[in-house]
Structures
1.
Amino acid sequence: QTYTFPDHFWWGSAASGPQTEGRFDGDGKGENIWDYWYQKEPEHFFNRVGPDKTSQFYKMFKDDVRLMKEIGHNTFRTSIQWSRLIPNGTGAVNPDAVRFYNEVIDTLIANGIEPFINLYHFDMPYPLQEKGGWLDPATVDAYVAYAATCFELFGDRVKKWFTFNEPIVCVEGGYLYQFHYPNEVNMAHAVTVGYHEILASARAIQKYHAGNYDGEIGIILNLTPSYPRDASNPDDKKASVLADAFFNRSFLDPAVKGTFPIELVEILKELDLVPESATEENVAIIAENTVDLLGVNYYQPRRVKAKESEEGSVHPMPDDYFDYYILPGRKMNPYRGWEIYEKGIYDILINLRDNYDNIRCFISENGMGVEGEERFKNADGVIEDDYRIAFVKDHLRYVHQAIQEGSAVQGYHMWTCMDNWSWTNAYKNRYGFISVDLDQDGKRTIKKSGRWFKQLADANGFS
Ligand code: BGP
């Protein structure tokens, strides 16, 4: 069978500023929470490799864009680093950053690759974090000013903007499950941080629309479809609905519909955790400023069952309301430890079609992390990642099916282009179409999947 995609389908990949650019003497970049945390507690980072050791996109972007073109990209997503553009989070703009981002954008466009620009990928400027980060309502104002600066500087050429990447991950990592700075466990803080991100996103959207720019703005969410162990068991079902409300609909509903899931609101009321910022005025801003399009990151599903014991945790936590379970016979990515469930991508798209007014969307991340990927290198130094080609194809078949059934999905971005540094996992899991040799000045080599992607993009499909 041949799978042909709609005309002008977006083929490309996604990355982020903090994971690729690097920091260099004299570049004027300020510190963000990752730079700070690494200096303070390098033991949190795999092999003690920190954000200073990236693939050096700051210096190598011209070569990288040429490689993107060589592997068939017509679009590419990265993020502006807030702490590069406005080193203190508020105030003066760094002229070297303006020059750098202008060059990146212009180089992409000159090579026929449309830039998709995200404004926030987990990278709070440290001077703002010191005052509370997303806990502080003033951070929302600072973010909106930063967003407005970006629209003004680059909005004449950038037509696709995103306010956040995976905002729930900042909540989970920083305030619930301890894998982002400030590494707390505090549900009240988690709720406030999440609310402020949602408000910041809505206010940035408001600003963008008010500026009458020629383009559109959305948000990128990691949607992890929630499947109950036994769909005919009402307790399992309820557990799954609540997990979905906490981890998907908490951001999806306000972003697309301007409302909050009632199940979540009821729980927060019961726990007396409704954030102070949820004033009538802010509720209205969120209601009125929804996204133009949606990026969907999909890696793995969430398998949920009813809570087995009544024992709650000491502090309230989302997982007081459900338990996880392992699906017997599940398919695993043997190199990363995540479940592979290709149909999940279809379920998300159909859910958006049926329950979110078929919002225009694209797959903004999907991909396969591989630990120890050098073992798949052939004699020419090329990584033969047939498993990645199979992974992408298996997901694309479901994307194709969703399109046949009316989904408004418009593109597919794999995570990621060049192997990159990834938060506390650093270089443990490699995801790219292109390998990066850290021992040889970041030397790039196109993997087998990169060559395959070129054929896919040229043919606008595969068989
Ligand atoms: C996504 C993030 C990316 C990237 C990816 C892979 O959730 O948006 O920034 O980190 O996950 O993650 P990891 O390297 O931990 O496997």
2.
Amino acid sequence: MTRLSGITPSGHVHLGNHLGAIRRWAAEGRADDLYFVSDLHAMTSAHNPARLRGLAREQLAVLVAAGVPEESVFVQSDLVRELGALNWVMECTATYGEAARMIQFKEKAKGRSGVRLSLLTYPSLMVADILLQGASEVPVGEDQRQHVELARALARRFNTTYGEVFTVPRAVLPQAGARVRDLSDPSRKMSKSTRDAAGIVFVLDKPDAIERKVRRAVTDGESTVEYAPDTRPGAANLLEILAACKEITPEKAAADCSSYGALKDAVTEAVVETLRPIRERAGALLDDGGELDRLRRAGADRAIARGEHRLRSALRLIGAC
Ligand code: TYM
């Protein structure tokens, strides 16, 4: 069994990415799993090349600093030739209807002009990410499930039409409550692409920034603390964050706090202590640079070597080369 998942550097890594994904990759990841920075995916809407390069580097440092096995990490664009080739094979296996049906495409393209063609075809690149490496399990949030379903469909279609090459992957979804919401607006999830950063705790935020953001988090007018996600979403989000950091239930977290002041103090402390070692180690990796470059090169070599034979077989079977 090989697990594979990715994170897109469309902004700074935040607490939601950490608690919902990276932390699990670190806890469950084995050396032959693959966790990568999907920088090619960050080019599907307006982007700044220099900023993107910096964010990709930062995310790689955060993955390593958070404890994702060093042997498992790589940066997607280091495989651009292999992935570009397999993406073409996948575009020739998928239909236009399948791509146009993707909910993320519909949501992101809605009402916009100048939508990049890559926003439509990006699921095909994601399929290539998964199939090139022969991944059998893909841990993702609900938002990415449809893309993994497409990978299943295309792997099966290719295998039956041209010959057996690809492992048919399946999505592995996190347990309920793994979705972290924006601290200023608990009706939306914490997201890298939100413009206003007031409600987003970044993994590399300093303690005083974390404290400020938690202190300003939206709650409600009640004087007691209770875990009620449907009626008190702001408080529930803070309780879920506290519970995730301390590995207790949100109900237990609520019972431990007598007021919102006490809850916010507890959340600040728990988040600061959860993120501190990651910020320090990532900072050291980014300052030194040499170690990160070495890890990046080794990761790329390993990922290319792993996928090479599948790409060659797929190209041969489909009639190229
Ligand atoms: P991305 O960068 O949007 O998200 C990375 C991971 O973080 C999770 N996540 C959250 N979890 C909890 N609360 C939140 N507020 C929150 N926001 C994000 C996501 O569910 C995800 O697990 N297209 C993918 C990256 C990708 C990929 C792949 C994944 C590229 N190729 C191949 C799997 C396989 C993406 O943009 O993830």
